[in-house]
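Researcher: Quick test of sequence recovery. Tokens follow.
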């Protein structure tokens, strides 16, 4: 008799990350020698700037290789406090900051600290893939509020109001957004903040793409437009996207001392401090010259313009112009119900993404992973040459679909 080790219910019900799955499949095909254009990845294609690497080397040489304070070293928390003050004119104290192993872990620990079973967390759709599973792992229930391309994916405060119940614990905002690239307006942010203060729920403001903005779009988050909501808000950020440091794993939460203390307690009983060397590197990122960020954003802007131009020329594809981040999220639903040359019906974004990967050798993430099947996500954190090849293949593959 074979024995199957039992798994916990929480993991049996847990959905794996579709983005990581597609990336893994694309990498496997590439390893087999297939010429894949991978536009599925959610990370800058640039190398980490040299002065940041130097700080890490120095940390190793100096023997900065031991456990640190669970919530991060004072020096890094100080750099984070200064950064938030400069960008948003909001003042935090050391006890209001927790440094974690990436922004992702900061969000996870915050949700573990504030969500009880049966609590509800409002998540605007399209959403970052990890928000709903993280809410569920905390025992909570994600409550979805739709946003649409017609309004530039604007938050509809009326709809959020209707979604509120006695169990509402929090809302998660992500601006600029992954996957849409949209930025919420001052008015939308203020309206949500007022609602949070009035009804007593927490805003988790995931600002991870805040430095990647175009067309002179300024730093702005829920607290810069409505500072009165500070005790109702937890800001999330990190070095991954801004400084091309995804593998270093440093992110943080800034919020009310009671929540930060609770989340740090969870961190202390699970992962302990984030990597000591990476913390030193993050200090260099935040306090060093910021020209590297401008350079990367300028490159992203050029690529954004190119991809938008290409998408605009494809019949049946519409795309909202992203104001930030490095993704386009075109509506491809006019191709649904068509057939591939092999006779397979494209019945949704997953079928289209599969077709693109297998027939056109281009990796993209189906919209269904973000809660909206009408779309597909391409990352333009890739060279112009790669983007050209990707868009050529995308256009050709769509053109080969047959009306059924
Ligand atoms: C990349 C990303 C994060 C966090 O990334 P870390 O590498 O864990 O800091 C958080 N939110 C969104 C929307 C992201 O795209």
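Model:
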């Amino acid at each position: 008799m074979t024995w199957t080790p039992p798994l916990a219910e929480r993991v049996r019900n847990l959905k794996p990350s579709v983005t990581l799955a597609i990336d893994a499949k694309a990498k496997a095909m590439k390893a087999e020698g297939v010429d894949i254009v991978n536009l599925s990845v959610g990370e800058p294609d640039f190398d980490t700037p040299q002065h940041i690497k130097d700080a890490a080397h120095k940390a190793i040489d100096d023997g900065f290789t031991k456990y640190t304070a669970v919530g991060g070293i004072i020096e890094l928390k100080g750099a984070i406090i200064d950064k938030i003050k400069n960008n948003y004119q909001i003042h935090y104290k050391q006890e209001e900051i927790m440094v974690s192993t990436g922004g992702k872990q900061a969000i996870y620990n915050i949700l573990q600290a504030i969500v009880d079973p049966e609590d509800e967390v409002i998540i605007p759709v399209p959403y970052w893939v990890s928000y709903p599973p993280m809410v569920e792992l905390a025992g909570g229930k994600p409550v979805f509020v739709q946003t649409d391309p017609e309004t530039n994916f604007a938050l509809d405060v009326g709809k959020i109001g209707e979604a509120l119940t006695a169990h509402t614990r929090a809302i998660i905002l992500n601006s600029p957004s992954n996957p849409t690239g949209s930025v919420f307006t001052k008015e939308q942010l203020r309206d949500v903040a007022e609602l949070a203060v009035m009804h007593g729920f927490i805003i988790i403001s995931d600002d991870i793409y805040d430095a990647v903005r175009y067309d002179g779009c300024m730093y702005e988050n829920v607290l810069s437009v409505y500072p009165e909501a500070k005790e109702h808000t937890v800001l999330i950020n990190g070095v991954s996207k801004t400084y091309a440091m995804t593998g270093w794993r440093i992110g943080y939460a800034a919020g009310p001392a009671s929540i930060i203390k609770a989340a740090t307690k969870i961190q202390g009983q699970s992962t302990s401090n984030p990597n000591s060397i990476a913390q030193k590197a993050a200090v260099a990122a935040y306090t060093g010259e910021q020209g590297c960020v401008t350079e990367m954003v300028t490159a992203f802007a050029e690529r954004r313009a190119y991809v938008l131009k290409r998408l605009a020329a494809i019949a049946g594809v519409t795309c909202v112009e992203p104001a930030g981040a490095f993704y386009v999220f075109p509506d491809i639903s006019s191709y649904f119900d068509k057939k591939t040359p092999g006779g397979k019906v494209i019945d949704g974004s997953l079928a289209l993404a599969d077709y693109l990967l297998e027939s056109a050798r281009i990796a993209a993430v189906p919209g269904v992973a973000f809660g909206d099947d009408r779309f597909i996500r391409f990352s333009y954190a890739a060279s112009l040459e790669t983007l050209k090849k990707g868009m050529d293949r995308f256009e050709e593959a769509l053109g080969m679909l047959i009306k059924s």
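Residues 42, 102-104, 128, 174, 178, 206, 208, 238, 240-241, 246, 251 surround pyridoxal-5'-phosphate (CB under 6 Å).
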